[in-house]
Amino acid sequence: xxxxxxxxxxxxxxxxxxxxxxxxxxxxxxxxxxxxxxxxxxxxxxxxxxxxxxxxxxxxxxxxxxxxxxxxxxxxxxxxxxxxxxxxxxxxxxxxxxxxxxxxxxxxxxxxxxxxxxxxxxxxxxx
Length: 127
Description:
- The protein is mainly α.
- Helix content is 59%, strand content 8%.
């Protein structure tokens, strides 16, 4: 659990209050953000707190980026094994077969409809 302790700003000879992270897990960003919330008359303390906040945010972003790179599959040199060359050809052949079967089925349905239409409405007179 993070808690902040109030202490006097020792940098630049200022005497304004500055919140400092006291326990583990509390980051400097929390302290800098809390210091920004304080009503301080000194511009130096606010600028210092803002600068600390920016540095801490940048540090956290870099840390997360490095962690994300380690979590990627190829980061540690472990890559997925390439499938055999014939599996790609087999998959493409199966796709072509399914497309052919669907096209022939729809073609047969169209021919059936055409024959039914010609039977209902013959193209030549039948007198």
